[in-house]
């Protein structure tokens, strides 16, 4: 199948060939014709599936088939959970629209609003936004959603995870009732189905989950190791393997910072990327990593979602995710586009349950290995003691926060940064 046979116009085909794509991916083959038919679509697709082009290309075709209105009202709105994803989605729109007259821009929190307001004032056909900043600017009268013809919720499951449901509903109330709706989500939880029922109109369900084939291409290794020795082990693996570009996942933001600092101490250049980092710091970390100046990028799941880092040879789960699907997303970062990749997981005793859940999901047994000098010695009593200690520290932290009265004041503003506090 070719892009041409999907019914895309010459202007788009030219941009597609400039990008170097020759065959539409599974999700593109399924979604593009339906979107061109102006159907509402409920699509199950993950990062790496080519989903962005799957909605961007037909949307551009629809928008480009009518002459641009002089005032350029926003005709298409794409909501994404994170700033990085918003930026990447808009970058793709920009590339695919190169040979059309359509304009797009992106708005998200964590950076000054003025340049965004200015870009909106010039008129855009397509707006990519995170919910908080979108509502802020709408409130200020900097934009109107009254003429939106197509709405996309990208990574809708993440948006719900990050607590954006109310914001999404508010946005929906600002849109014209007659419009085309597209919902993309990696998973179909009850909540996603409920949301889909509420706003999609006779949706066509599209499923393209190439993840299993991806997983098969990836070499998955699990090391059982004590929690306290994980840092030593990862340093050993990176140094002895002479790995030059490694993406490491931690479960928490603090964990990401701590590990990044320890790697730096061991003379391994590293940067952490998570929701508490400023936009500038995240962009710097990502570009440093892409350019090879930063050897190890330590990320939380939410921060890593949608990051376009092609062909990573090594992905390490410093901690296993408690949501099994995240494991598949994480390791999907390696072994892309036919190249083989290696995914390593460091599993301490308290994470063995997560490992079982992951094995159930991927339908594969991941036999843990034990390295000499790293033989696990933890007992369940140690795990319980560590958990109790963590609880004690958390309680102490909370009561300190309450006494100082400083918590809350900083988080009451900054809608664009919502969800950053979760991981
Ligand atoms: P996405 O799932 O939208 O994040 O896309 C993942 C990556 O695949 C991006 O780097 C896209 O540029 C790339 N891509 C999208 N469609 C195709 C295609 N048909 N052929 C090759 N690469 C593609």
How is the topology of this model organized?
Blueprint: H1 10-19, H2 26-36, E1 41-44, H3 51-64, E2 76-79, H4 83-96, E3 104-107, H5 114-121, E4 126-129, H6 131-139, E5 150-153, H7 156-161, H8 165-173, E6 180-185, H9 190-199, E7 204-207, H10 211-217, E8 218-224, H11 230-241, E9 246-249, H12 253-265, E10 270-273, H13 279-291, E11 296-299, H14 301-304, E12 314-317, H15 324-331, E13 341-347, H16 352-362, H17 380-404
Parallel strand pairs: 1-6, 1-7, 2-4, 2-5, 3-4, 5-6, 8-13, 9-11, 9-12, 10-11, 12-13
Helix pairs in contact: 2-3, 3-4, 6-8, 15-16
Adenosine monophosphate is lined by residues 21, 23-25, 28, 47-53, 308, 310.
Structural summary, described in words:
With 423 residues, the protein is of the alpha/beta class. 43% of the residues lie in helices and 14% in strands. The protein is built from 17 helices and 13 strands. The protein has helices at residues 10-19, 26-36, 51-64, 83-96, 114-121, 131-139, 156-161, 165-173, 190-199, 211-217, 230-241, 253-265, 279-291, 301-304, 324-331, 352-362, 380-404, and strands at 41-44, 76-79, 104-107, 126-129, 150-153, 180-185, 204-207, 218-224, 246-249, 270-273, 296-299, 314-317, 341-347. It has a seven-stranded parallel β-sheet with strand order 3-4-2-5-6-1-7, with helices on both faces. It has a six-stranded parallel β-sheet with strand order 8-13-12-9-11-10, sandwiched between helices. Helix 5 (114-121) links the parallel strand 3 (104-107) and strand 4 (126-129). Helix 2 (26-36) packs parallel to helix 3 (51-64), helix 6 packs across helix 8 (165-173) and helix 15 packs across helix 16. The longest helix is centred in the C-terminal third of the chain and has 25 residues, at 380-404. It is globular and about 70 Å long. Residues 405-423 have low confidence and may be disordered. The structure holds adenosine monophosphate.
């Amino acid at each position: 199948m070719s892009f041409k046979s999907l019914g895309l116009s010459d202007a788009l085909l030219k941009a597609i060939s400039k990008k170097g794509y020759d065959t539409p991916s599974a999700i593109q083959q399924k979604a593009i014709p339906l979107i061109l038919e102006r159907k509402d679509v409920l699509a199950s697709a993950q990062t790496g599936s080519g989903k962005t082009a799957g909605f961007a290309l037909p949307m551009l075709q629809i928008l480009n088939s009518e002459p641009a209105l002089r005032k350029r009202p926003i005709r298409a709105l794409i909501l994404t959970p994170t700033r990085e994803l918003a930026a990447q989605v808009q970058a793709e729109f920009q590339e695919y629209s190169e040979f059309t007259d359509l304009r797009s821009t992106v708005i998200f929190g964590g950076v000054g609003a003025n340049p965004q307001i200015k870009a909106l004032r010039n008129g855009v056909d397509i707006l990519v936004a995170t919910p908080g900043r979108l509502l802020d600017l709408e409130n200020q009268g900097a934009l109107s959603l009254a003429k939106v013809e197509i709405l996309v919720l990208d990574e809708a499951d993440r948006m719900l995870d990050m607590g954006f449901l109310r914001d999404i509903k508010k946005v929906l109330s600002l849109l014209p009732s007659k419009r085309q709706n597209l919902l993309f989500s990696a998973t179909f939880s009850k909540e996603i189905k409920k949301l889909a029922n509420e706003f999609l109109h006779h949706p066509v369900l599209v499923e393209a989950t190439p993840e299993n084939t991806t997983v098969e291409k990836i070499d998955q290794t699990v090391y059982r190791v004590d929690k306290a020795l994980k840092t030593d082990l990862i340093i050993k693996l990176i140094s002895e393997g002479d790995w030059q570009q490694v993406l490491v996942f931690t479960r928490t933001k603090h964990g990401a910072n701590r590990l990044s600092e320890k790697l730096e101490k061991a003379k391994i250049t590293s940067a952490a990327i998570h929701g508490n980092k400023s936009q500038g710091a995240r962009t710097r970390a990502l570009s440093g990593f892409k350019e090879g100046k930063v050897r190890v990028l330590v990320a939380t799941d939410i921060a890593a979602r949608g990051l376009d880092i092609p062909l990573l040879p090594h992905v390490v789960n410093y901690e296993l995710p408690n949501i099994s699907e995240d494991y598949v997303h994480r390791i999907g970062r390696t072994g892309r586009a036919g190249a083989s990749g290696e995914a390593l997981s460091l599993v301490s005793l308290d994470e063995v349950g997560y490992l079982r859940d992951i094995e159930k999901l991927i339908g594969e047994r991941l036999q843990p290995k034990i390295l000499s000098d790293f033989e696990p010695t933890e007992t369940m009593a140690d795990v319980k003691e560590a958990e109790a200690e963590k609880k004690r520290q958390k309680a102490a932290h909370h009561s300190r926060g309450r006494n100082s009265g400083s918590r809350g004041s900083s988080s009451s503003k900054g809608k664009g940064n919502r969800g950053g506090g979760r991981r």
